[in-house]
Design brief:
about 270 residues; 2 strands; about 0% strand; globular
């Protein structure tokens, strides 16, 4: 275990240095990460103002709170493995990762943590500026805030494992752009990124409860906003744990099947 921790620590330092090296790419990513919720915030604030100051129980300041916190939650749970795994298969770089003494997923975990540590302060500053501009209203209870951290960690695990699993479709198809786009469209609509799920028709909300997307983003966001009862919050955490177990099982199953047929296209 000590050797594993040392290897992981070294991988984290390498990932941190690599992340700092590509500062321009990091800046472009930050801009894109902020623009999407900002556009939705402006759109829904305009809709609210034109509807007398409220839409579906969300006031203009309520929408401000929702989309500013959405930016933070999405930042914490976001991964990019679905964009990179196809490249690793096509160019054979996965072969080098397989020579290392630990599973390639650990390198991605280290990269993800390093990137978030560097960019989170900038996201927090931007969130503060938006809060001064849009005056959000947030009124969570203390128990709700206490559950936010475990909910965010579980949301990150679900999203990371599911996206790693889907990315492995490249073992069979080599190119997975269509799969990626389909996934991100579903994520946009059913995770609450486009609009709060409470504004959707009842049948869509029912579908969102069954699928994992809500538990990746909307659920921890609802906790931050204080929109859930204690029973709903505890039930949500149980569902998140269940999805972590399911997604981990799928990840292991697909990896074992994919690695048997892997051939480095570009090697």
């Amino acid at each position: 275990m000590r050797a594993f921790i040392d290897i992981y620590f070294q991988q984290f330092k390498t990932s941190l240095a690599a992340t700092l090296q590509y500062r321009a790419s990091l800046a472009i990513w930050l801009i894109g990460h902020v623009l999407e919720p900002l556009v939705f915030l402006i759109v829904w604030s305009s809709v609210s103002n034109s509807s007398g100051g409220s839409v579906g129980g969300f006031t203009t300041r309520g929408f401000a709170a929702y989309f500013i916190l959405l930016m933070l939650v999405n930042h914490i749970t976001y991964t990019w493995i679905m964009y990179e795994f196809e490249y690793r298969i096509r160019n054979g770089t996965l072969s080098f990762a397989l020579l290392k003494p630990i599973h390639p997923i650990h390198s991605d975990i280290a990269d993800n943590i390093a990137s978030k540590l560097i960019t989170l302060p900038f996201i927090l500053v931007i969130a503060g500026i938006l809060a001064l501009a849009f005056h959000p209203v947030i009124s969570p209870s203390l128990w709700s805030l206490a559950l936010v951290i475990p909910a965010l960690l579980l949301a990150l695990l679900i999203r990371f494992l599911i996206e790693w699993t889907l990315a492995q479709a490249a073992f069979w198809t080599t190119r997975v752009s269509a799969i990626n786009q389909t996934y991100f469209v579903l994520l946009l609509f059913l995770s609450g990124q486009l609009a709060p799920l409470a504004l959707y028709p009842a049948w869509i909300q029912s579908v969102a409860v069954i699928l994992p997307f809500r538990w990746m983003i909307s659920f921890p966001l609802e906790l931050m906003l204080g929109q859930l009862t204690p029973t709903q919050a505890l039930t949500g955490l149980v569902i998140q744990v269940a999805w972590v177990m399911v997604s981990y099982g799928l990840f292991r199953l697909v990896w074992q099947a994919g690695i048997r047929i892997y051939s480095a296209v570009g090697a």
